[in-house]
Design brief:
- This protein is 51% helix and 21% strand.
- It has 582 residues and is of the alpha+beta class.
- Strands 2-1-10-9-8 form a 5-stranded antiparallel β-sheet, sandwiched between helices. A 5-stranded mixed beta barrel has the order 3-4-6-5-7. Strands 12-14-15-17-16 form a 5-stranded mixed β-sheet, covered by helices on one side.
- A hairpin with a 6-residue loop joins strand 8 and strand 9.
- It is elongated and about 165 Å long.
């Protein structure tokens, strides 16, 4: 059976994913959006009504402030609001009104609660202001001459504004006067007319036992209600205002859910229309996406197959700034590395042979070290043994003192050799910790020359120290003293009797450069790099009178390397010069 290609797999997975995602969104919208939105609106209304009730209960508002707070609530939350008695009698309803003063000084409040929404725009566009003179035709509230429901409002020099539909056939009252106060609805206020509150009051009051019990416990009542005449879906909320543990007043709010249903119905129809087109678009985009993703993968796969046949000459042409580009660069890098790996293996084989040869040289050096150490210890031990036997055999009293001096001298040499071997072993182990401090090298040099004055006088040597802008050095003073001591002893040992040893201490870019030069035979050039090795001597005869332990310069080397110092030895016209930089 033919294998499915990566393009097909990507297409199928992508299309399935997007179709599933699209279906989930549609189902969620169609099945749960209305309930979710209604639940959210109920929670928001309950929260806002509770906040209004707390402000209303805590603050003593006058009539003007009360009207404005109610108007602000209605406008901001697009709902209707009224304050009721516990029995459901209206105490305050919509605050939107115009107050006029008639010629006789009588004040009349003109309610705007029944103005039809279609006429509200004319009312707002009239730009009514305090001081304007208007004429109003309408009906007085039953039993009072202070509250008026307008049918037609006329402003001087303007067309009719505002009307109450369906009452033109009634006998209307006519009043006129100057505006003294007005509170108009917001232009964007599209709520139901306040008349819905009266319908809700007739339906809800008297309260049921369940509602009354809940309100008496200080809890709000919020439920969906369908207005019986028009079938309009509404949300009704009642919040109790408690005083001394009893319900003192009720705050009732009503808002429409009709827009939610209408919007949800429109969405259902909309999704039905775009469903087929959306699925076709998803399939097309999935195909394009799969081809875009699979193309570089197929190219990289062909390159990998050629590399599997050890053809490392092929290079991937993909240079995009993404994961494919990164993979392409990795394959190109892998090709280059594999091409050089075979050569590196051959080189590794050669290196292995060199390492084996180096190991053999190390073993040889170890053998030489044991041999050299044995040789250095054998001669003084033989001397000590011979002179000790002479003392045992009872040599003459005149020779006895000389024999003891020889034994002490040889044991001293053996002690120095063992001490140097131990010091070199510690330096090579890497366990030495430097204790650095600041000091002057020239002062340290004077102390060392004073200690070696006996050796200098023995060969009639003179030490000449030359300093130039000497800076303070920061190093381990004890170790540097050992370095200078060993180099100076080596210079004294091989210097021509009666000559000078020149010591120069100079500044070299903020560092100290010290050199010690003696007059004598030079070191063969082929041996210059070997003099730092243990037991190595340029003088191959290993004369016991002129040679030391053979470890002094090896110790110098390790101390200077611990200080990360540059050091060396060169032949000069006069002799040999050792130098180091700190």
């Amino acid at each position: 059976m033919k294998r499915r290609g990566v393009v097909f797999k990507l297409f199928a997975i992508t299309a399935l994913f997007f179709l599933l995602f699209y279906a989930i969104i549609m189902l969620g919208q169609l099945l749960f959006f209305e309930k979710f939105y209604q639940h959210k609106k109920m929670a928001d209304l309950e929260k806002k009504l509770l906040a209004f009730e707390q402000q209303y209960a805590q603050k003593q508002w006058d009539d003007t402030r009360m009207d404005r707070e109610i108007a602000l609530f209605i406008t901001r939350y697009k709902t209707q609001l009224a304050i009721l008695t516990p029995e459901g009698h209206m105490k305050r309803e919509t605050p939107f009104r115009i107050t006029i003063r008639e010629n006789d000084g009588h004040f009349v409040k003109i309610s705007l609660s029944l103005i039809h929404p279609s006429e509200r725009e004319n009312l707002l566009n009239a730009n009514l202001m305090r001081g304007d003179w208007i004429e109003v035709e309408g009906l007085f509230e039953e039993g009072t001459n202070d509250f008026f429901y307008p049918v037609v409002i006329k402003k001087e020099g303007a067309q009719d504004i505002g009307s109450l539909k369906g009452v033109e056939e009634l006998e209307l009252d006519r009043i006129s006067g100057q505006i003294t106060d007005l509170l108009l609805p917001d232009p964007n206020h599209l709520n139901l007319r306040q008349g819905m509150l009266w319908l809700a009051l007739d339906e809800w009051f008297p309260l049921s036992e369940a509602h009354e019990s809940k309100l008496n416990n200080g809890q709000s009542v919020i439920e969906e209600w369908t207005e019986p005449w028009t079938g309009m879906r509404l949300l009704v909320a009642i919040q109790p205002v408690m005083k001394e543990g009893r319900v003192n007043e009720l705050i009732m709010a009503i808002t429409s859910l009709q827009q939610i249903s209408e919007a949800n119905d429109a969405l259902q129809l909309f999704y039905m229309y775009i469903g087929i087109g959306g699925c076709a678009l998803i399939l097309l985009l999935s195909l394009i996406f799969s081809k875009i993703v699979a193309k570089p993968l197929l190219s990289l796969n062909r390159i990998a197959l050629r590399m599997a046949r050890l053809d490392f000459s092929v290079k991937s042409p993909i240079r995009s700034q993404d994961e494919f580009g990164s993979l392409s660069d990795s394959l190109n890098g892998l090709s280059e590395k594999l091409d050089t790996t075979l050569q590196e293996l051959q080189q590794a084989n050669r290196q292995l042979r060199e390492d084996m040869e180096h190991k053999q040289r190390i073993e040889q050096m170890q053998k030489e070290f044991v041999s050299n150490a044995s040789h250095e210890l054998k001669t003084p031990l033989s001397i000590v043994r011979g002179f000790a036997e002479g003392l045992k055999d009872g040599v003459g009293e005149s020779k006895r003192e000389r024999y003891l001096d020889v034994i002490l001298d040889e044991t001293g040499k053996m002690e120095a050799l063992v001490r140097d071997m131990l010091e070199l072993t510690k330096l090579e182990s890497g366990t030495i910790k430097l204790r650095k401090s600041s000091f002057w090298v020239s002062e340290l040099m004077e102390e060392i020359v004073d200690k070696l004055s006996h050796h200098l006088n023995g060969k009639q040597l003179k030490v000449v120290t030359v300093t130039a802008n000497e800076p303070v050095v920061h190093a381990d003073q004890e170790k540097i003293e050992q370095v200078i001591f060993n180099i100076l002893v080596n210079a004294i040992r091989y210097a021509v009797p009666g000559s000078e040893i020149t010591v120069r201490i100079e500044d070299e870019e903020g560092r100290v450069r010290m050199s010690i030069e003696n007059e004598g035979d030079g070191i063969p050039p082929d041996q210059l790099e070997h003099i730092w090795e243990r037991f190595y001597r340029a003088e191959r005869s290993r004369n016991r009178k002129t040679g030391g332990t053979g470890l002094g310069l090896a110790i110098v080397k390790h101390i200077l390397e611990l200080h990360e110092s540059k050091y060396g030895v060169v032949n000069t016209q006069k002799g040999v010069m050792f130098y180091f930089i700190l």
